[in-house]
Amino acid sequence: MTTLTETAPATPAKHKAAAGTALPPARGQSFLKLVTIELRKSLDTRSGRVLVAAILLIALAAMTWQITHLGEGTVGFDAFLSAGSVGTMLILPVIGVMAMTSEWTQRTALTTFTLSPRRVRVQLAKFVSAIALSAVVMTVVVAFGFVYTALTAALTDHATTYAGLGGQLAGAYLTMALNVVMGAAFGAVIAQTAVAILVFFIAPTAWSLAGPALFKDNANWLDVFSAFGRIAERNLNGMLPETLTAIGVWVVLPTVLGLWLSSRREVK
Amino acid sequence: MITVENLTKRYGSTTAVQDVSFTVQPGSITGFLGPNGAGKSTTLRMLTGLTPPSSGTATIAGKRYVELPNPGRVVGVMLDAAAQHAGRTGRETLALNASLLGVPKGRADEMLEAVGLSHAAKRRVGQYSLGMRQRLGIANALLGDPAVLILDEPANGMDPEGIRWMRGLLQDFASRGGTVILSSHLLGEVQATVDRLVVIGGGRIVANGSLDELLAGTGTLVRGLDPIGLNQALTAAGLSVEPGLDGSLRVDATAEQVGRAAAAAGQILLELRQSDGAGLEDLFFQLTATPAAA
């Protein structure tokens, strides 16, 4: 603070536009602007950048392990994609969770919601931004997949195949988006990062373990992991109602509840 | 201009703020005072759209806060300087909001310089002292070149130099037609900064007026050789007398009336003058004291 003593009083009048540059006229905040701001917020802190770097490094490590442990026969692009997706699918939702919770744990909600009082819009922008960021990260992972498949063709005697590429990518992006929205929804419902992440990982797992024991086949209706699995494989096995119900309960319901709760939550 | 009309906030059966009305005019600094839990923060939060009121309205420049399309361009708000992301740099904190407010990027650096934080622009806010965070909060509030400032405890954690700087900044802002409302527990600082006072106690407005008006002394202070005799003489003359702690008496009358009454009774005076205004601290306790307050 002592270094400030000389400089501060010398410039008391610079804050008013009349004394400096004239500002452009005030305009409303477009939704795209809000999304851009939220994207920037997820990447302008060390924790945000570390998270993204970690996802990419884990994907690289998994693919490297895959390329050094190839089995017999033709190697498909999907082998690398699924190797890279395991960690990605695990950590990407955390981006969604943190987009929602960091406002409350870092108490920036106070500034965010005074500058943008229409909270639901801001929360929706966070969902969109989390999906966009995840799509970019996923695209890098997919690019890694192509590189490793090409490396396999170039460096080993394995034949490689890209059969079913479109479906694989569609499945991967769709599951990714659902996972991230589910993470963001849990973050919106539970405003504590650690608790939200714990519940996000434990609750559906607990159900997938306990459900079948309690409700036999009926547990399928609420097993979100199996639903994600069916979507990733683009094969619903005639279980469309079950899949939609599971997604509805674990993704749509928390999203709606989270939007409602965070628009009413007392900002401390 | 800020207009608060019959604002009430109930939480269940408790009423945090009851029927609060006041206005803050352009070109003035209004101090918003009250003990902890009196409803100060709740009122400021209703004013800034963070808490919906149970009834009543609060408007800024004629509009409810939540109706302002880009509030930061009309009103600068700092409710808690500590509520900033510890992982962002000072410049990034301002640059983000500059983008949201639609002001040029250079505005962030301009503001950092205006509050004396240029040297710390690239440091993370987590490393800032509370005084530096206050400065950053002020920079943030001024970012959109607003006409209105709403500041909760802006001097909190600032050193004497910082407090003096802030006073200059706010007075300068008001002198150019800005509207300022600030809350503070530093009563001496409030007294030196504000033009008007709104005092809240137990959720209600207990005083609202210009600082001079509220602090103006009333009556005459008199001290005599025989305080008890003097008191009796003045009371006998029909004057209202209030004994002070040091044997002085405060009389609700002019110096001449007191002098005549004393002379008539043959009382010897040691001191006779216009009563001092009560300090802001005395006024504060006088206004906000409640029987329940421990």
From TrEMBL, chain A:
Record carries keyword Ribonucleoprotein: no
Give me the segments passing through the membrane. 50-67, 79-100, 127-151, 171-190, 197-215, 243-262
Region Disordered: start-end pairs: 1-21
UniProtKB keywords: Membrane, Transmembrane, Transmembrane helix
Q: What is this protein called?
A: ABC transporter permease
Ranked from the top, the taxonomy reads: Bacteria, Bacillati, Actinomycetota, Actinomycetes, Propionibacteriales
From TrEMBL, chain B:
Protein name (Swiss-Prot/TrEMBL)? ABC transporter ATP-binding protein
Under Gene Ontology molecular function, one entry of this record is: ATP hydrolysis activity
What residue stretches are annotated with the ABC transporter domain? 2-227
Keywords associated with the record: ATP-binding, Nucleotide-binding, Transport
Q: Which Pfam families does the entry link to?
A: ABC_tran
Family listed: Belongs to the ABC transporter superfamily.
Q: Membrane-crossing residues?
A: none
